[in-house]
TrEMBL record:
PANTHER family, per the entry: MITOCHONDRIAL IMPORT INNER MEMBRANE TRANSLOCASE SUBUNIT TIM10 (PTHR11038:SF16)
Protein name in UniProt: Mitochondrial import inner membrane translocase subunit
Family the entry assigns: Belongs to the small Tim family.
Location of the protein in the cell: Mitochondrion inner membrane
UniProt feature, compositional bias: Low complexity: 1-19
Domain statement: The twin CX3C motif contains 4 conserved Cys residues that form 2 disulfide bonds in the mitochondrial intermembrane space.
Highest taxon of the lineage: Eukaryota
One BP annotation, GO: protein transport
Lineage of origin: Eukaryota, Fungi, Dikarya, Basidiomycota, Agaricomycotina
Region Disordered: start-end pairs: 1-26
UniProt entry tagged with the keyword Metal-binding: yes
Family matches, as InterPro entries: Tim10-like, Tim10-like_dom_sf
Amino acid sequence: MSSFLGSLTGSSGSSSPSSDMTARKEAFKENMRQQMAAESAQELFSTMTDKCFMKCIAKPSTSLSSSEETCLDRCLERYMETFNLVSRVYISRVNKERPV
């Protein structure tokens, strides 16, 4: 991160100011994309955990019964399969609607 911040404040020598600015903008955009992806993954995991816990754990205790483990395993698997399917369809639709 310090090298990223340093690149925002200093010049990189022989490159032109506009190409240097473009490179810094692209680095910033990529950094933001990575942060947003990490936040989305965290939110997905949290939502998935909450929903499956509510569905599968009737009486919380210090350990899980085998039926609770099976329920959680199946719930998490179905949730991820559904998320992946919806994501693929969404991306396909966005790509079809994108102007050529």
